[in-house]
């Protein structure tokens, strides 16, 4: 930037803010017709690896444009190229020299640092700069409106590197860069990209532009003491190769290291300028190359390039930056054609010069402003076409849209593509142009990248860091529940919680640690104080049965929970007194009486419905009563005699369903009553415990004391600390009247373990608050996410459950944690079933009697031949009831035979009457009353 200040002072000392209007202005005299030629410039370093390729690509592009009569309609491009010599001062001078040639646009500059300087001059002279290799993101600023980027920006490249780092789980990288605008701004962009994926740059190593291998080696040597082993190199190709050589000399390209180079490395590899020894130097390196989709135009250009190399006219191969340089010329040609088609002219005007102190004019007075520069810039930003490198379209800031990259791995004497990166798909093995038909969900199934050969010819993915400092892990020295955490001596730790931590850390071999006990061992320490030690940096982490609470979360970070917990209430239980009448306990007296009554009701109903048609319900009255009772109570065993009538079957089906429900309920309740203990009736859960005034036990050092006093307003004088399962059992057994407690409130994992060894107690109510256990780390610790990921891996693989089964043997009294209600079942539970049964019986009997009455009247009418009204013949009620009873008592089969016999007799009598021509039936009915016709002789 010092050069920038010098140049701007010189330039602005001779440039006037307004254009000259006098006759000496020397305005270019260009006719309104299309010009025969237009000057364009190119500004890059001829001897650089990119410059060698760009020089030939630009010359070929200009030649192709001039040979295409349809592109500029006869106008030719006149190319002027200047060498920046990879020097900021000389590059600036060459840029001024180039602008004296009345160029309408310049392809370049090649380097970002130089582009910052030249862009200020281009702004004043209104000459668009189309750079094919300057990737500094800050050049997109509105400060440089005439800078057009025909290549990718470092924003997209650094995003690709961040995704690559994230995909391998690395959290820290070391950035090595050239100390200029290009290097500093690129690494700043990398830092932002890494933060977005949960990683960061731990160290930045800046190399001066003129440093040699020895100076670079000294800087790298200072980095060997760091834990991080992932390096990102962002510099120009010449300096980058020197750096890799220095790293090789001090053993930093061995197994365990990761080296990621930006696109400077692939530009060298694609140029074909490296010897075999240089390739051996680069073994295991990762680099990014701009992806250029295959096309017919590109294939033709590559074939022409190959022909030139075969003829020994070229000693470099075509790379992506050569394609971008070719497209830069095409962009100028397409935009100029549009510009000229609109009738615009190519004209330049001089700036008013200032006299020097000695009255002489400056040599810079020959610089002119391109009057159509603003219009041409606007056309360039709006242009889009299919170039050699792919679709060419710029965004509003002048950056090339749709940047994609190939991930390159150097292995052996060659380099190979292991995948791609784009903004849409991220890392993928699928070519970006082939992803339009692939859904986003499919990317989660496909592999991210192919296998990689790392430095040291290793196929094992490096951890990204070495074992750093030894972490001091605090563990509580408890007096009870040592199945979770048990400290032997000062650093020997066993138990479920420590086993989970050790298993998780085995998946993270770069972590070194040692346990350190917290507490004296005489009593369980306060866990809030233990967690606070992490915030005070006395411990690097805390491992134990530590619940995740809001007040703790404010001062530390917790890992992924490895245990789900919650508070419960435990009370003592008593045995039910067993006696000979225990089998009556499941039902209330009301329920027993109702059930017995319905057995009789259903039995009577079925007997009535089946009596006429079922032989089993006929016979001597005493036999019928016995059979009816036997049928009714046999349904208790879901068995019944044979039924003949449809109505009887309907009643029986409903009743058997009711009996099934009652029997199942009776069996379940009786089993619970005889085999399971019954809860103490005084405390049913947390709310009844709060209302009582009895003492409550809790685990010493637990958060339960503060929680109960704050959330449930329980007086702290009621809370009794207990530090072991044995004291739990003793206090609960004594009870509140003998110096014990009425209940204990603690977390569910402890209670499961307690009940597995003490069978005289049980949980009442449910969990009234949810908690989880986790490991505590300092705020923003990188280990938090790593250990959390390891815990998830243990959970998904089932290893976490196996550790729990091994460390916490919960067997004998585990079933007592289930809550079984053994209260008696009353009529209010089953009244609906009985109501349905009663309604079905009533309807069936109603249908039966209606049918019988109809049949009775019909049969009686036929028997009375001389009667006019059936009711007149049965004027006596008693006689009617007896006749109806006899009718019902008749067996249905005998009645049918009698009915058929009667029909045959009637037919015979009708025939005799017809032969004898008897008097009409009406006269007989007038002579003989109906009741005399059926009276006995």
Rg calculated over all Cα atoms = 51 Å
Residue share in helix: 40-55%
Order of strands, main sheet, comes to: 7-6-8-9-10-15-16-17
- Judged by helices, strands and strand pairing, the structural class is alpha/beta
The largest pleated sheet is described as:
8 strands, mixed
* CA-based shape: elongated
Number of helices: 32
E-strand count: 31
β-strand amount: 15-25%
Q: Pick out the low-confidence regions.
A: 2-19, 21-31, 353-362, 814-822, 865-875, 921-937
Q: How far is it from the N-terminal to the C-terminal residue, by CA?
A: 148 Å
Question: Would you mind describing this structure in some detail?
Answer:
Helices cover 44% and strands 16% of the residues. By secondary structure, it is α/β, with parallel strands linked by helices. It has an 8-stranded mixed beta sheet with strand order 7-6-8-9-10-15-16-17, sandwiched between helices. α2 (49-67) packs parallel to α13. The protein is elongated.
SSE map:
Blueprint: H1 2-14, E1 37-44, H2 49-67, H3 69-72, E2 76-83, H4 88-99, E3 106-107, H5 112-125, E4 129-131, E5 147-149, H6 154-167, E6 172-178, H7 181-196, E7 200-207, H8 213-221, E8 230-234, H9 237-249, E9 258-261, H10 263-271, H11 276-281, E10 286-290, H12 296-310, H13 320-341, E11 348-350, E12 368-370, H14 373-382, E13 384-387, E14 390-393, E15 405-411, E16 414-422, E17 426-428, E18 470-476, E19 486-488, E20 492-494, H15 496-506, E21 512-518, H16 527-535, E22 541-542, H17 550-553, E23 557-558, E24 563-574, H18 589-610, H19 621-634, H20 646-675, E25 678-679, H21 686-691, E26 696-699, H22 704-711, E27 719-722, H23 725-734, E28 743-747, H24 748-755, E29 761-764, E30 770-773, E31 776-777, H25 782-797, H26 799-807, H27 827-863, H28 870-873, H29 877-889, H30 892-916, H31 921-927, H32 930-933
Parallel strand pairs: 1-2, 1-3, 3-4, 4-5, 6-7, 6-8, 8-9, 9-10, 18-21, 18-22, 26-27, 26-28
Antiparallel strand pairs: 10-15, 11-12, 13-14, 15-16, 16-17, 19-20, 23-31, 24-25, 24-28, 24-29, 24-30
Helix pairs in contact: 1-5, 2-13, 4-5, 6-7, 8-9, 13-14, 15-25, 18-19, 18-20, 18-27, 20-27
């Amino acid at each position: 930037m010092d050069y920038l200040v010098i140049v701007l002072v010189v330039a602005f000392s001779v440039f006037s803010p307004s254009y000259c209007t006098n006759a000496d202005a020397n305005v270019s005299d260009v006719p309104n017709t299309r010009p025969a030629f237009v000057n364009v410039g190119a500004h890059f370093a001829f001897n650089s690896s990119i410059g060698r390729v760009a020089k030939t690509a630009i010359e070929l592009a200009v030649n192709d444009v001039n040979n295409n009569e349809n592109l500029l309609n006869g106008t030719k491009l006149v190319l002027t190229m200047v060498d920046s010599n990879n020097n900021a001062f000389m590059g600036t001078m060459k840029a001024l020299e180039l602008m004296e040639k009345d160029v309408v646009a310049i392809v370049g500059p090649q380097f970002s640092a130089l582009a910052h300087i030249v862009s200020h001059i281009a702004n004043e002279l209104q000459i668009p700069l189309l750079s094919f290799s300057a990737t500094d993101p800050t050049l997109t600023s509105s400060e440089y409106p005439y800078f057009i980027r025909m290549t990718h920006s470092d924003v997209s490249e650094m995003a690709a590197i961040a995704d690559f780092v994230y995909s391998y789980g690395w959290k820290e990288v070391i950035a090595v860069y050239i100390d200029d605008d290009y290097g500093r701004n690129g690494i700043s962009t990398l830092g932002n990209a890494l933060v977005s994926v949960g990683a960061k740059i731990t160290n930045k190593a800046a190399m001066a532009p003129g440093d040699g291998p020895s100076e670079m080696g000294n800087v790298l040597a200072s980095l060997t003491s760091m834990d991080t082993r992932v390096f990102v190199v962002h510099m120009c190709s010449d300096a980058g190769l020197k750096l890799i050589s220095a790293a090789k000399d001090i053993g930093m390209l061995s197994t365990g290291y990761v080296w990621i180079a930006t696109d400077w490395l692939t530009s060298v590899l694609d140029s074909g300028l490296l010897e075999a020894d240089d390739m051996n130097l680069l073994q295991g390196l990762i680099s990014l190359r701009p992806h250029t989709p295959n096309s017919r135009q590109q294939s033709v250009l590559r074939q022409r390039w190959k022909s030139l190399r075969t003829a020994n006219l070229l000693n470099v191969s075509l790379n992506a930056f050569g394609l971008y340089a070719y497209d830069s010329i095409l962009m100028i040609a397409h935009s100029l054609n549009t510009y000229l088609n609109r009738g615009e002219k190519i004209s330049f005007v001089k700036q008013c010069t200032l006299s020097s102190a000695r009255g002489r004019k400056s040599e810079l007075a020959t610089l002119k402003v391109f009057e159509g520069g603003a219009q041409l810039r606007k056309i360039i930003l709006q242009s889009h076409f299919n170039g050699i490198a792919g679709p060419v379209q710029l965004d509003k800031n002048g950056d090339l849209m749709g940047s994609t990259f190939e991930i390159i791995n150097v292995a052996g004497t060659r380099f190979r593509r292991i995948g791609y990166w784009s903004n849409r798909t991220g890392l993928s093995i699928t070519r970006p142009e082939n992803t339009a038909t692939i859904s986003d969900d499919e990317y989660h199934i496909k592999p991210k990248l192919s296998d990689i050969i790392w430095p040291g010819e290793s196929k094992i993915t490096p951890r990204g860091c070495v074992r750093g400092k030894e972490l001091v892990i605090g563990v509580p020295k408890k007096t009870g529940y040592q199945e979770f955490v048990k400290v032997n001596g000062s650093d020997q730790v066993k138990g479920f919680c420590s086993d989970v931590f050790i298993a998780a850390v085995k998946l993270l071999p770069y972590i070194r640690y040692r346990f350190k006990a917290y507490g004296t061992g005489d009593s369980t320490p306060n866990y809030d104080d233990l967690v606070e030690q992490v915030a005070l940096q006395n411990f690097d982490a805390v491992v134990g049965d530590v619940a995740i609470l809001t007040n703790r979360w404010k001062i530390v970070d917790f890992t992924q929970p490895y245990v789900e917990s919650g508070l419960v209430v435990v009370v003592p239980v008593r045995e039910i007194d067993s006696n000979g009448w225990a089998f009556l306990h499941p039902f209330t007296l009301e329920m027993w009486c109702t059930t017995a009554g319905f057995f009789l009701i259903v039995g009577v109903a079925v007997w009535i419905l089946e009596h006429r048609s079922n032989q089993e319900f006929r016979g001597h009255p005493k036999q019928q009563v016995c059979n009816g009772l036997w049928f009714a109570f046999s349904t208790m065993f879901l068995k019944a005699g044979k039924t003949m009538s449809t109505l009887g079957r309907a009643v029986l089906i409903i009743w058997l369903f009711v009996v099934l429900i009652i029997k199942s309920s009776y069996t379940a309740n009786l089993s619970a009553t005889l085999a399971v203990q019954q809860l103490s009736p005084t405390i049913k859960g947390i709310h009844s415990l709060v209302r009582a005034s009895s003492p409550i036990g809790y685990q010493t050092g637990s958060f339960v004391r503060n929680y109960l006093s704050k959330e449930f307003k329980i007086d702290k004088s009621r809370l009794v600390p207990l530090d072991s399962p044995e004291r739990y059992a003793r206090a609960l057994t004594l009870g509140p009247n003998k110096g014990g407690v009425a209940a204990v409130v603690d977390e569910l994992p402890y209670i499961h373990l307690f009940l597995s060894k003490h069978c005289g107690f049980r949980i009442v109510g449910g969990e009234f608050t949810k908690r989880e256990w986790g490991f505590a780390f300092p705020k923003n610790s990188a280990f938090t996410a790593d250990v959390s990921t390891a815990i998830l891996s243990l959970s998904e693989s089932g290893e976490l459950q196996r550790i729990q089964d091994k460390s916490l043997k919960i067997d004998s009294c585990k079933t007592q944690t289930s809550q079984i209600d053994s209260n008696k079942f009353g009529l209010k539970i089953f009244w609906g079933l009985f109501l349905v049964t009663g309604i079905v019986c009533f309807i069936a009997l109603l249908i039966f009697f209606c049918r019988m009455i109809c049949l009775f009247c019909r049969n009686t009418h036929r028997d009375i031949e001389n009667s006019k009204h059936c009711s007149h013949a049965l004027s006596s009620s008693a006689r009617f009831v007896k006749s109806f009873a006899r009718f019902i008592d008749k067996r249905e089969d005998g009645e049918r035979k009698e009915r058929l016999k009667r029909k045959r007799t009637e037919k015979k009598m009708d025939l005799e009457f017809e032969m004898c021509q008897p008097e009409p039936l009406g006269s007989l009915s007038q002579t003989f009353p109906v009741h005399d016709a059926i009276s006995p002789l």
